[in-house]
Structures are given as C-alpha cells and as structure tokens.
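Revision sheet: structure tokens.
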Amino acid sequence: MRKTYYSMATEGRTAQINIFGNITSWPWLESDVSSYTLQRQIQDLDVDTIEVHINSYGGEVGEALAITNALMRHPAEVNTYVDGFACSAATIVFMAGKRRVMSSLSNFMVHPAWSTVSGNADELRKQANDLDRVTENSIKAYMACINRSREELVALMREERFLTPAEAVAWGFATEIDDVLVTEDKAEQDVTKKVYELLHGAQEPEPTPAPQE
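Predicted:
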C-alpha cells in the first residue's frame, strides 16, 4: 500500500489533520493529498474539534473546495493552522477554520486560477472564461472571511505576492498569529547567564564587587 504524506491523529475528542503536500485529484507522489481519501476520513470522525495543519503550495482548486466543504459540513469546530506555507488552493482549505492561525514563521499567498491549454481561438477564449468561474469560487471563500472589498481582493490576487502573518491578519484571512519566537523571559542579547544555567543547573553567581580605591 502506498503511503500518504498527510496524516490524521485523534486524541480524545480532538482530531488533527496534517496537509503537508500538493492537493490533487491524481495522487502520484507520497506527498500528494486528494479530496477522495481525505473527505471519507473526515466524515467518519466522531470528535468535537478538528485541527488542520497546513504546509502546502496548493494544487487543484476543485479538490481544495471539496476538502473545505467536507470540513465545513462536519459538526465539529474546525481550526486551521499554517505551519509553513499556505499558497494557492491550500489557502481555500485554510478558510474553513473558525480560528485561522498563522505561525510567526509562515507565509500566505493567493492568486487567480491558472492552467495550460492548447487549441484554436474559441477554445482559448472558453478556457479563459472557465478560469474566471473557478477563480470566482476562491473569491467567495475568501470574501466570507476577509474585511476588505472585492476589488481590493482581486487586485491582491493579481499581484501574486506573499503576505506576512501580520498582513494576513490585517486582511482577515487569518484570525491570529502563533508567535513561536516569543518566550516569557525578558529579551536579552547577553547569553552568559543562560549558558551557565545549562552547564551548572543553577543561577549564575553574583559578580564579585570590584575593589574600591
């Protein structure tokens, strides 16, 4: 049996789904994810919370829409997380979350649907119209979450640029940032104390007062 690169784990009343590969209707590499295999497992989950972790450059819009619909139909609360990259079709799956969390070390990118085609002028015009309709589904998914106008969204998609976590929150794509770089300790540039604690398991001794003249 060929291994899949996505994984699903259930602990108590919470399920975690990791999507760390391309989203495609024809899985070929072990990193590929299809809606057919994932959707069947989602609908059988008897949990209260589903956490979806994403690190994907995207793939087929239709597959992403099917996964998103499966998540949104499930009675559990769905929370989505970007652990690395959420690009293209993977951003549609991200929109399924009630909480949409960007890691401080992550990126987000949306763009219009694209494809390759060959044929005569009529076939090329039809393909362009079809791509507009596919892009419209993505726009609907984004507009249900963001706080900007449709015109602003379309302009952003045409730029095809990466958003920082802060920008994703400002737009409404994400609801919050998981700042993995923040610690409870006061920020310091001198690591002497930390090294001493690691070596000796104790606080650094107080420095000896300088001799007075």
